[in-house]
Amino acid sequence: MMVNAGINKPLLRVVVYGLLTVLTIIFVYPLFITMANSLNPLYSLSTLLPTAFEWENYKMAVTTIEFPEYLKNSLIICAISVPLTTLSSALAGFAFARLRAPGKKLLFVIITSTMMLPGIVTQIPTYILFHKMNFIDTFYPWLLWGIGGAPFFIFMYRQFFSTVPKELEEAARIDGCSTFRMYATIFMPLATPATWTTVIMLFQGTWGDFITPFMFLRDEHYPLATALATIGYHLPDNPNVILAQPSSAAAILFMIPTIAAFFFGQRYLVDGIAAGAVKG
Amino acid sequence: MLQTKKWRQYATFYAFVSPWLIIFIFLGLFPLLYGLYLSFTNFTGFNMNQLKFVGFSNYKTVFLDSESMYALGRTLLVTAINVPISLAIGLFLAVLLNLKIKGLSWWRTAFYIPSVVPVVSTVLMWKFIFSGDGLLNTLFDKLQLQPINWLGYEYATTALIVMLLWGAGGSLLINLAGLKGIPADLYEAAEIDGASPVRKFFTVTLPLMTHILFFNLIMGIIGSLQIYIQPILLSGKTLLDSPIKPNYLYLVHAFQQIFAFQRFGYGLALMWVLFIAILLLTVLVFYSSRFWVYYETDQEV
After folding, report:
1. What is the DSSP letter of A211?
2. pLDDT tens per residue, range B228-278
3. Among residues A113, A91, A142, which one has the least CA distance to residue B32?
4. Closest residue of B to A25, CA-based?
5. CA within 20 to 30 Å of A91's CA: A33, A66, A116, A191, which one?
6. Is the CB of residue A156 less than 8 Å from the CB of residue A194?
7. pLDDT over 70 (residue A46)
8. B196–A contact, CB cutoff 8 A
9. How many CB atoms lie within 10 A of CB A80?
């Protein structure tokens, strides 16, 4: 009944599983080898397989630069940005899916076209604006952006809320529910998969974003992403000697939260992306 | 009575979208138009009080500057290679996983995981893989092959594309959802007609996946035209370093003009040209889609 009923033929099965194994090695090996090399002795050459377990490299990764400070900044930015963006996107998505008003079509066209807008186009003028407001080197910009939500997720929530049966809404209305209460007590709980998808994807995006902090913050307020992209690991007295092993260790440490978020939310992501994109 | 109810709904709608709308006006629309205005001036970051209107001069420079045209060419080249291959790999992986196989979620995780690795980590990783005595050359050495200067002039773009393709599994989840949505009876019907698996792929799977491929194509093009950080970090140490020439992409050029040379007006003009190019391309792809994208709902209407 699936694409290929012939998967039961032994030869074909060998081919398919063989292919899967080769592809898995191709995709996972770069990660594996980075981990292996992050544990090699300092200044050693690359090896194809693990040779040593120098955990000292990880200690160097967090002590050579102000790692804890940058980590704290990453966490602050995520803590401000992710929940606010999610709430605001859900609210707007709900309105676009379930409420009627003049001008709604136009606003929705604006949402979809801002999805195509390269973020960097607005960032320089925004810098001038924030400079005038004395917001440079503060976390206020993330607060404001958070309140504004994100077009992609507004779109996703709209797709999701459009699929909720009208009967639920009518029942709530007969009970005299206000629109906001209906949204908060009926629609939001139904949207849990969409919400997890949003939170995870926003977290991954915010955690990895180095360019916005690079523009709006200064050194000591950089999150990890910006610090790793601009400062890096080299000998204190010779910036040309790059410390490959601690650098690899930092790359591994930095990806752990986003990978963990993926594992944690995998089942939601699969459904959430299906609901959001396929019907779009 | 009904009238007030209607108005109340309008008010609720605007109340619900107001956080987005207000911020959009102040931090979206205003900067956008302000940037458009600045792209017609000689703005360099410090001369706010003596701004001069220079007409289309910045835009003329975009098209006359040999560097920006070179960068545009390289960007189109990278996009033309990266997007179709990514699309094909993403679809191939999904079709493979959609066979009745054991351990689906493990394979899926393996293929998808590169796309959840933050780009800073990705570049740091691949930088060492590509480096002179890095992993790839160690491997080549074991295979008795000549080492290659991956990040040098000749191979830098190949290296960049390899690194980008590593994330090709990013479209996997969407593709899998799309494949699940294809009704099984279509395959059964094809089987009764004696269609081979290859034929089934081209007559059933591919036509019914076009709307997903279309989505991936648009997102792929938009994303690919905006690449700038990977080339910068692959060969440089900081964000202000210029990458090796073949990887000098369009947005790298804009980024350099703004941050390294303070040519803000010109940099903004570069970005506006890109923005308009993306809009035009999207419209073009949308327009062409009616010839190759199959929407089930079109036939019901």
Report:
1. H
2. 999 999 988 778 888 999 999 999 999 999 888 889 999 999 999 998 888
3. A113
4. B110
5. A116
6. yes
7. yes
8. no
9. 19
In the predicted structure, residue A132 carries a pLDDT above the cut 80: yes
Instruction: Say whether the ipTM exceeds 0.90.
Output: no
Q: Is B288 an interface residue toward A (CB < 8 Å)? A: no
The distance of B92 to chain A (nearest Cα, Å) reads 11
Angle, alpha carbons A223-A226-A232 (nearest 5°): 115
Chain A residues with CB-CB distance to B222 below 8 A: 116, 118
Task: Find, in chain A, the residue whose alpha carbon is nearest to that of B28.
Answer: A122
Q: Chain-centre distance of CA A208, in angstroms? A: 7
Under 8 Å between Cβ of B241 and B232:
yes
Residues A20, B210: Cα–Cα separation, whole Å: 24
A19 touches chain B (CB under 8 A): yes
Q: Report yes or no on B176 lying in a domain.
A: yes
Q: Is residue B12 part of a domain?
A: no
- Name which CATH class applies to A66-231: mainly alpha
**B157 contacts B246 by C-beta, under 8 angstroms:** yes
Q: Where are the domains of chain A?
A: 5-59, 66-231
Q: Which amino acid is at B271?
A: M
Residue B182 belongs to a domain with what CATH number?
A: 1.10.3720.10
Closest Cα in chain B to A280:
B215
Q: Would residue B161 count as lying in a domain?
A: yes
The verdict on B238 touching A (C-beta cutoff 8 Å) is yes
User: Hey, which residues 42-61 in chain A have their CB within 8 Å of chain B?
Assistant: 45-48
Number of domains within chain B: 1
- Out of A27, A204, A247, name the one closest to residue B111 (CB): A27
Contact B128 A247 (CB under 8 A): yes
Please indicate whether, in this complex, the C-beta atoms of B128 and A92 are within 8 angstroms of each other: no
pLDDT tens for B159-214 read 999 999 999 999 998 899 889 888 888 888 988 888 888 888 998 999 889 888 98
Q: Which of residues 153-192 of A touch B (CB under 8 A)?
A: 154, 179-180, 183
Burial class of residue A25, CB neighbours in 10 A (0-12, 13-18, 19+): exposed
CA atoms within 13 A on the CB side of A220: 1
Containing structural domain, residue B140: 58-300
Compute the nearest-CA separation of A197 from chain B (Å).
Answer: 12
Closest by Cβ to A24, choosing from B10, B107, B120: B107
